[in-house]
Amino acid sequence: MIESLLVANRGEIARRIIRTANRLGIRTIAVYSEADADLPFVAEADEAVCIGPANPAQSYRNADAILAAAKERKAQAIHPGYGFLSENATFARTVASSGLVWIGPGADAITAMGDKINARNLMAAAGVPVAPGTAEPVAGVDAAIAAAETIGYPVMVKAAAGGGGMGMGVAADEDALRTELGKVQAFAERMFGDGSVLLERFFPRVRHVEVQILGLADGRVVALSERECSVQRRNQKLVEEAPSPAVGPELRERILAAAVKAGEAVGYRNAGTVECLLDPATGEFFFLEMNTRLQVEHPITELIHGIDLVELQLRIASGEDVTLKPETAGHAIELRINAEDPKRFLPGPGKITTWVEPEGARVDSGYTAGNTVTPFYDSLLAKLIVFGADRQDALAKARAAVAGFAIAGPKNNLPFFAELLENEEFLSGDYDTAIVSRMRKGVK
């Protein structure tokens, strides 16, 4: 096992990783921006290094500064968390070539899955179902129109280098395609430095289901279980639950087998997630993307399996054999508590004057009372996670946890979750990715 770990991230995920590392007796080194100096993760690490100003490009995305901190504090390994540099193949390769242990998949797997077109083609070749779409970037408007006619409207216009629900648009006809193509290309060029775009069939009613995989040190790929991620706003997740209420034993067997194929196709090591779209009417599922990192919603998998995924990540990266619990028990739900208004989901930073966490729930938080939520980073305040004997029990615990969580200062979306947990569609388990849009129809 490694003896020292630099955590190249911030907030709740930095605290989460530090917590497990400290339990395992691993010396932890936090890196932080000037804006984050007072956050809990800085104090909870054994050591902390300021790596730059608030701008992520000058701090959390500054590979040179992070590597310099690792060298200065004699870290043996780097855990990137999620976001920032976690899926940057160049950074992963540099970490490894510097003699440090990278807690994640190899750079080749990150590269292979980072381009959505390449990933689609690899998965199709491996026998993983993919939705009808283009096998290479569309070369312009005319090519896009021709491809859409073959695929059939409506189509999803996607940035080839995108991820995290960013760089997407839906076109129901040719006029809309012309508009969305230009918008997505411009966004992709600005955000990812790559304006390449692909088209896929858009399913008006679809569920977002993903599978947690682990690539073990001995080369095997194991699929643990699936998570339901269909409660989304602007293609970004708000709620996850495990197991999915839409997945029965036969479908579970098929989707887990496909996830293993996906991991094997790229020689995957460490933790990753295979994301799929599920047509609830037919039971068909299609590969969406692979997240080559620890997922935000990993706690619900931990609870139903009784495992610690960060510990498993560290052991796999150290070359150790790991003991898994493939069987599941109970039901877990995660709510992403964000600093945003609960109606339109617009960011609402500010100083936290009240922070009282509920009893009987797991809270993975990045803040506490007295901290200031700045506008420089993602709006995630905390992840509120409950575990019950079954879905009904978990729902009841989620209601109690939301009611018992008190936050004042910045805007937050706790009122939205109180509303969702009384929504008949959500309670039935028969919902899809448009549920939030239906709940917010007409809201101004």
UniProtKB/TrEMBL annotation:
This protein's name:
biotin carboxylase
Group of enzyme by EC = ligase
ATP-grasp domain segment(s):
120-318
Q: Where do the Biotin carboxylation domain residues begin and end? A: 1-441
Q: What are the record keywords, sorted?
A: ATP-binding, Biotin, Ligase, Nucleotide-binding
Q: Could you tell me which InterPro entries the record lists for this protein?
A: ATP-grasp, BC-like_N, Biotin_carboxylase_complex, Biotin_carboxylation_dom, Biotin_COase_C, CPAse_ATP-bd, PreATP-grasp_dom_sf, Rudment_hybrid_motif
Q: What Pfam families does the entry give?
A: Biotin_carb_C (PF02785), Biotin_carb_N (PF00289), CPSase_L_D2 (PF02786)
Source organism per entry reads Actinoplanes ianthinogenes
Name the EC number(s): 6.3.4.14
